Amino acid sequence: MGFLDNFKEAMKRGAEAADNYIEREKANQAASSTPAKPAAHSTTTHKSSLPEGVVMTTLDSEIFTFDDVSLTVSCSVLTKIINGEPKEASIQREDVRSIVREILTRDLPVSGATSGDLKILLKAGTSIGQTIIADLNSHGYEAAFKLPLMIRTKQ
What we know:
The chain is an alpha+beta fold. The protein has helices spanning 3-33, 89-111, 118-138, and strands at 55-66, 69-81, 141-153. The protein has a three-stranded antiparallel β-sheet with strand order 1-2-3, with helices on both faces.
């Protein structure tokens, strides 16, 4: 087994781990969406573990189709408004998602990611990830990836 075989196996394991994480997050979100019975004596509120003003936005296996190639893209981005009025978290998430989708729609074909080649997908994920952070910064957000941009062919 050569280096490329080991690398391909590692990429498969990484993609599986990312898929498992996304499934756990979806299960957690589904579990949290069911209303829990309020405790009669509990007056505490749930606090986020994120710093004040930081919002996490997740793309859950967004699908982009170009000609005959379908790509699945997922990532989690942490953003905070640099200057200006803070937005409601749901509005900020939707704003970030629309910016990221616009960049992906524009840059996936240009980067050659539509070939579905593993090496090209890795390079495209890195370069497009940098473009996403730069573009979010230009839109007034301080941004960083919590989970990196993963581009895979849809099977």
